[in-house]
Amino acid sequence: MNAMLETPELPAVFDGVKLAAVAAVLYVIVRCLNLKSPTAPPDLYFQDSGLSRFLLKSCPLLTKEYIPPLIWGKSGHIQTALYGKMGRVRSPHPYGHRKFITMSDGATSTFDLFEPLAEHCVGDDITMVICPGIANHSEKQYIRTFVDYAQKNGYRCAVLNHLGALPNIELTSPRMFTYGCTWEFGAMVNYIKKTYPLTQLVVVGFSLGGNIVCKYLGETQANQEKVLCCVSVCQGYSALRAQETFMQWDQCRRFYNFLMADNMKKIILSHRQALFGDHVKKPQSLEDTDLSRLYTATSLMQIDDNVMRKFHGYNSLKEYYEEESCMRYLHRIYVPLMLVNAADDPLVHESLLTIPKSLSEKRENVMFVLPLHGGHLGFFEGSVLFPEPLTWMDKLVVEYASAICQWERNKSQCSDTEQVEADLE
Hints:
CATH class of the largest domain: Alpha Beta
Helix content: 40-55%
Distance between the termini: 116 Å
CATH topology of the largest domain: Rossmann fold
Number of strands: 9
Number of domains: 2
Oligomer: single chain
CATH architecture of the largest domain: 3-Layer(aba) Sandwich
Order of helices and strands: HHEHHEEEHEHEHEHHHHHHHEHEH
């Protein structure tokens, strides 16, 4: 009896199980949070030129380590989730004026205009024309944070509100924003050029907005007049190539696809009377829209095929994605162009990144910036746990834009000096 009470084997087994369980949990945490991933400067793809050398000297963020918060910042999923749910921390509330433009088809486009809060570093009048991500607008926290920082660095900011995205602005025609429609963005840019004839433009697009601004610039050479540079952050470049990856469970893309589709359904259905009501004079392409298929849609592709492509009369989803993607327009952009993606962005498959890499190898005006971390529009910075209000992305875009402004100022001064010397001779 005493011998049985003194047997230690059973507790030892339990201790071993506990240790194994703890080790397994720690292993999962390390893997999920990607804690073993190093911090490093972003990978840069560009051609050696006077412009690229100037940018490397003038933009320290291009060559410095991007250091995300230690505990969770190396997980692209957490960075993306925090951007999606929280936007930014301690986001400011910049004061702006809302402008309304009536489009030729009766649609009412809106954008918000924010004046600079300081003098620009080169002393010029510079306006950032900004296109937000899918279903986003000027009231989103990441946009407010970026605008406030840009204002404090001397930039006027004009932010497009995607057609149908603002809950308090009703649609006035049977149409809302689509993946690559540039009409509203173009109308905003034309308003800025007309209202501020001496201003120069910095074009900025986030996610879907990156596709729109690049497509806009490439559509016609006239769209690049008065444009100093363009910055695109976290776009996917080709919807046709992205649609296959969005149906894969790798990196949980199928789950993200479902969440974005659910949000799009809510926005479309909130405008169903303006889009599909019996009293609305709809384009012929919208007449056969089956709303029951919209209710049951679980992916963006199903929504695009059943609704979005029909706003512009495309005959198929393939045609819609081919025509609306900026990939076929990128080679027509001649102003300095910075394309930014994160290697751990769960929404943008690595195969899509061959597009900006290939472009940067062929065009001197293009620089592709690829940090290891950042997720989709996250790019939070911080020491251990809590992120800073301002992100690496915010600082990089403004730093790049200011460097381009200085580059253009230097070129102008050199041209003036050469002209004076020529006159003296």
